[in-house]
Amino acid sequence: MLIAQITDLHVVADGTLCSGTVPTNELLRQAVERLRTLRPRPDVVLATGDLADHGTDEEYAALARLLAPLPMPVFVIPGNHDDRDALRRAFPDHHYLPTRGFLHYAIEDQPLRLIGLDTVAPGRPGGELCAERLAWLETTLAAASRPTLVFLHHPPFDTGIWWMDAIGLTGRRRLEAIVRRHANVEAVVAGHVHRTIVRRWAGTLGCVAPSTAHQLALDLAGEEFLAVNREPAGALLHDWRDGTITTHVLAITPAPSFVPADHATPETLAKTRAYFERAAQTLKAAETLA
């Protein structure tokens, strides 16, 4: 199962730019086209919050149009820039979304169980997992022992970028305890920070995806407060196979590929391919005997 994760889309009204600078709608259009034409094509797409920039109906209408070309299921959760009710109105055919209250849910009909968590704290840039949401997660995880991926907007751990960590997630310690109790949680993936970040957390893998739009400066020294940049837009591909997840970073703008010149002739390429095929068979045989 191949799972694409896009995040921090920050869609704006048609004909405008995010913060007057970033063409987020066009960048999302490019991301959708990249996923639509990717081979192999992802089985599902997770959109992990900050889908709109101001949470308006007009922005969500643009978001719905931009996501419409994706042929696979798309599962959305809100971020701190989003409005729950406006998001619901924009996607009436997304029947997995609860009709009231928090926008969290479990998707049970995929090879890997998917649990979306709503971490929105209205009026605040930081996130929250209150007692009600944590109890829901505990009950939902306990209801099935299948391998599960949990996705949310706010990372449940510090990232090293101090000002983003300052608007992080409350309730993270209780969340960590819950995840540790359930060994079937294969990974916890998030957005919010506009960077690719990977760490071990709560006995499982924690990932933060890059934005399909602008990125935050990599500022581990704490000297670039509020700095954003135009590093390449990206997404994550979570490849679930053989009982584990391997995560790849996908550049939204594909780079042209080439074969090194010393292998470029058909004869040399055929010999080199045969060498790699034999090496793969030898490695497999050695692992079988080990």
Salient structural properties:
7 helices, 290 residues, six-stranded mixed beta sheet, 2 domains, Purple Acid Phosphatase, chain A, domain 2, alpha/beta, 22% strand, 15 strands, five-stranded mixed beta sheet
Number of domains: 2
Predict the CATH topology of the largest domain: Purple Acid Phosphatase, chain A, domain 2
**How much helical structure, as a percent, in the residues?**
25-40%
Q: Mind telling me the C-alpha Rg? A: 20 Å
| CATH homologous superfamily (4th level) name of the largest domain | Metallo-dependent phosphatases
CATH architecture verdict of the largest domain: 4-Layer Sandwich
Count of β-strands: 15
For the biggest β-sheet, the strand order reads 4-5-7-9-11-10
Largest sheet: 6 strands, mixed
Proportion in β-strands = 15-25%
Indicate the low-confidence ranges by residue numbers: none
Q: Indicate the overall shape.
A: globular
Oligomer state of the chains in this structure: single chain
**Mean pLDDT over all positions:** 95
Number of helices: 7
The ordered string of helix (H) and strand (E) elements is EHEHEHEEEHEHEHEEEEEEEH
Structural class: alpha/beta
CATH class of the largest domain: Alpha Beta
In terms of topology, how is this protein built?
Blueprint: E1 2-6, H1 24-37, E2 44-48, H2 57-67, E3 74-77, H3 84-90, E4 105-107, E5 113-116, E6 127-128, H4 131-142, E7 148-151, H5 162-165, E8 169-170, H6 172-181, E9 185-190, E10 197-201, E11 204-208, E12 215-216, E13 228-229, E14 234-241, E15 244-251, H7 266-289
Parallel strand pairs: 1-2, 2-3, 5-7, 6-8, 7-9, 9-11
Antiparallel strand pairs: 1-14, 4-5, 10-11, 12-13, 14-15
Helix pairs in contact: 1-2, 2-3
